[in-house]
Design a protein that fits this description.
By secondary structure, the chain is mostly helical. It has helices at 8-23, 27-44, 49-59, 64-82, 84-94, 100-115, 119-136, 142-149, 151-156, 164-170, 177-183, 195-215, 248-251, 254-274, 282-297, 300-310, 315-333, 336-346, 353-367, 375-388, 393-404, 412-422, 426-452. Helix 2 packs parallel to helix 17, helix 6 runs parallel beside helix 8 (142-149) and helix 8 (142-149) crosses helix 23. It is globular.
Length: 462
């Protein structure tokens, strides 16, 4: 049994968690606050209320495709994890940690390591792992487990293979001509593939695991799933027998095999023509999840039941993501984002530029959550300014990408899929996430500043 003594750091984590549980609003209410604050800022800059409202209304639908992608990601990932073979793997992993604090450190490590491969995989499977661990390890605080499962998306994913801004800049087909003319193509070797980036990723991973372990409450004060009144539905889906002739197809795996074969042929074609990296694109990734889940469930009836069980987890995504889409449109159209950028740029030198862009990225990320999509809007003036002060362009891209993800630690936008799976609210985990944020932010800003001294400006190829 764990030592019941509470360290000072664990007491701090507990106090933060309790404070946020009492005072932090629901994620939906925060989304409405973001709309009000950004709309008010737009009007304060001289834009009319009617124009601001029009931007919000038009932007409300800008993330429809992405909202559906995230919804399908959650549903397909949940269904895949409930398939007996995958569920068995999750249960095996969940059996590794033996103590409450060890369980929280283990989930944090899994979340961050897997996010370097794919933030989508990390977000879904870390949540499912945390839920399974919570049921198996006595004394594991459910709130701290959930926060640990979220560390991949909030901590190091921007240093991995799905770092959006870096991938955009490395692919000529993804770059608008205006950006291509300013910076040219920036290879991954200058962003996520640089030793500077990998050093920061390794440092953050180590620091985050230590924080997660040290701040976890001891067994006698931990709040378990049972303490919070949460009883998750069983992942395994029972297979009964058809009762009517018309139900025969629902239990026959023949159609499953046929559809899965066609899906495999499609993915093989895509990989052979576009390279294996195509599987990291969100649409292909979700398609793979869907088909793998169908095949592993074997019978259509089992898969349909798994999908139905997953649907309640996506309610927050469906109602809140469109609100943030409206916020993004107001921020970009009203000039708020560009004014913020120019403010930081005007105070920059070659060596301070990455840090100030990092600060700007963190602040903007608190209002405009994005996995790098808004980089296309901001890249022209950020990269043009980087050239003017002779800052290393690849490092500017990676700094923007890495610091933007810091806001994810405390922003409910990216928490929603995980919260839906774990049946929690943002206030339940944001206390422990804030502790990580408070330490991560100055650490990351210091590291991007220090690493910038090891780089030399290279003019873009013309």
């Amino acid at each position: 049994m764990e030592n019941n003594a509470q360290s000072g750091f664990a007491n701090l984590g507990l106090k933060l968690s309790e404070w946020f549980e009492n005072w932090f609003p629901d994620a939906f209410a925060l989304a409405l606050v973001a709309v009000a604050v950004v709309a008010g800022a737009s009007v304060a800059l001289g834009n009319s209320p009617i124009q601001t409202a029009q931007w919000f209304g038009a932007g409300y639908w800008d993330l429809v495709a992405f909202t559906m992608q995230v919804t399908m990601l959650i549903v397909s990932g949940y269904a895949l994890a409930s398939a007996p073979p995958v569920h068995a793997v999750i249960r095996k992993l969940a059996g590794i940690p033996k103590s409450g604090r060890g369980a929280i450190a283990f989930v944090a490590l899994f979340s961050m390591a897997s996010s370097l491969m794919s933030w989508t995989f990390s977000l879904i499977f870390s949540a499912l792992l945390a839920r399974e661990v919570a049921q198996r390890v006595k004394g594991a605080d459910y709130r701290a487990l959930a926060a640990a499962a979220y560390l991949g998306v909030g901590g190091v994913w921007a240093f991995g293979l799905t770092a959006s801004a870096s991938l955009i800049m490395a692919a000529p087909a993804s770059l608008p001509p205006a950006i291509l003319k300013i910076s040219g193509v920036i290879p991954l070797s200058q962003t996520i593939g640089s030793w500077q980036s990998m050093t920061i990723a390794a440092t953050l991973l180590l620091v985050s695991v230590v924080i997660a372990y040290s701040s976890a409450p001891s067994e006698h004060v931990a709040r378990t799933m049972e303490d919070m009144g949460i009883e998750p539905p069983p992942l395994a889906t029972a297979i009964d027998k058809p009762q009517k002739p018309g139900e025969w197809l629902e239990y026959n795996p023949a159609l499953t095999i046929l559809v899965a074969f066609g899906a495999a042929a499609y993915l093989f074609y895509e990989v052979s023509h576009k390279g294996v990296s195509v599987l990291l694109e969100l649409n292909h990734y979700i398609f793979f999840f869907l088909m793998a889940g169908l095949l592993l469930h074997w019978r259509p009836r089992s898969y349909a039941k798994a999908i139905a069980a997953a649907v309640p987890s996506v309610a927050g995504v469906l109602i809140q993501y469109p609100l943030y889409a409206g916020v993004v449109r107001i921020m970009t159209e009203s000039g708020i984002a560009s004014r913020m950028a120019h403010f930081f740029i005007a105070a920059s030198t070659q060596h301070t530029f990455p840090v100030l862009i990092g600060v700007y990225s963190v602040v903007l990320g608190l209002f405009v959550p994005s996995a790098g999509g808004k980089w296309l809007v901001e890249a022209p003036y950020v990269l043009e300014a980087a050239k003017a002060v002779h800052a290393h362009l690849g490092w500017v891209v990676q700094t923007y990408n890495a610091t933007e993800s810091l806001a994810n630690l405390i922003h409910p936008f990216w928490m929603l899929p995980l919260l839906g799976i774990l049946n929690l609210k943002a206030r339940d985990i944001v206390g422990y996430a804030t502790l990580q944020f408070v330490i991560h932010t100055p650490l990351v800003l210091f590291l991007v500043w220090a690493m910038n001294y090891t780089l030399t400006y290279v003019p873009p190829a013309t």
